């Protein structure tokens, strides 16, 4: 019933490399400017560790990016766990929203535009994969679509939450959601690339291309979005 994602999956390692590049070339320098290189690196590492712990011991934060899931088998009911799938995807999207708004409140030139571009590109294969998995889990196209909208809508909730917290706690708060977002970009980017590499798909070159593209995008954004 469900064909293998095909060309869309070729975007996955590229978007994963792009996310990792944004974290290294965009988020980390911003954190270093706020907290210093040692503290900024520690903040970013803490974000990665937190996402790893949740994904390892609770539920995959990005099930649609998980290398443990085989998309070609989505014709069968996916474990029967639609709710955990949506909950994990919502958490992932919540952090996307936090990161987007936090990057806009930072001082690095062009970081906001770079983060928006990277998150948007990553959401294309992520959203398609999530839709396929939910369609297999709930057995109804309308229900799968509705759950996808609800999960991806958490991005807006994350943006609103970040705005509310920054107004109450001040701009020094920005470092925390930015570190969490940067850590999630590193974790999810690596997860996506590793999953495609494990499946035998070309991954290294697209991932490197994405990382280089992130660096170029960051530099270009500094020029066009001063």
Class based on secondary structure composition and strand pairing: mainly alpha
Report the order of strands and helices: HHHHHHH
Bin the strand percentage.
under 5%
| N-to-C CA distance | 49 Å
Helix content: over 70%
Total beta strand runs: 0
Figure out the total of helices. Answer: 7
Q: Return the average pLDDT rounded to an integer.
A: 75
Taken from the alpha-carbon principal axes, the silhouette is: globular
Low-confidence stretches: 1-5, 67-80
The largest sheet, given as strand count, sense and whether it forms a barrel, is: none
Kindly give the count of domains. Answer: 1
Rg from alpha-carbon coordinates? 17 Å
Task: Please characterize this protein's 3D structure.
This protein has one domain. The radius of gyration is 17 Å and the shape is globular. The N terminus is likely disordered. It has seven helices and no strands. Helices cover 78% and strands 0% of the residues. The protein is mainly alpha-helical.
Please give a quick description of this structure.
The chain has 226 residues and is mostly helical. The chain is built from seven helices and no strands.
Features:
226 residues; mainly alpha; single chain
């Amino acid at each position: 019933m469900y064909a293998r994602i095909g060309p869309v999956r070729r975007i996955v390692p590229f978007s994963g490399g792009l996310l990792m590049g944004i974290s290294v070339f965009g988020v980390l320098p911003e954190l270093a400017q706020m907290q210093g290189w040692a503290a900024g690196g520690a903040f970013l590492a803490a974000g990665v560790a937190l996402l790893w712990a949740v994904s390892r011991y609770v539920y995959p934060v990005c099930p649609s990016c998980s290398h443990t899931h085989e998309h070609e088998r989505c014709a069968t009911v996916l474990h029967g766990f639609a709710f955990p799938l949506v909950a994990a995807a919502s958490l992932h999207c919540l952090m996307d929203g936090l990161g987007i708004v936090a990057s806009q409140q930072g001082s690095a030139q062009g970081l906001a535009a770079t983060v928006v571009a990277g998150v948007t590109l990553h959401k294309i294969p992520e959203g398609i994969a999530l839709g396929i998995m939910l369609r297999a889990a709930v057995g109804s196209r309308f229900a799968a679509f509705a759950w996808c909208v609800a999960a991806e809508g958490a991005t807006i909730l994350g943006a609103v939450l970040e705005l509310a917290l920054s107004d109450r706690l001040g701009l020094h708060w920005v470092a925390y959601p930015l570190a969490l977002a940067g850590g999630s970009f590193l974790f999810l980017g690596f997860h996506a690339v590793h999953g495609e590499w494990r499946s035998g798909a070309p991954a290294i070159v697209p991932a490197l291309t994405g990382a280089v593209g992130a660096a170029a995008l960051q530099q270009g954004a500094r020029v066009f979005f001063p």
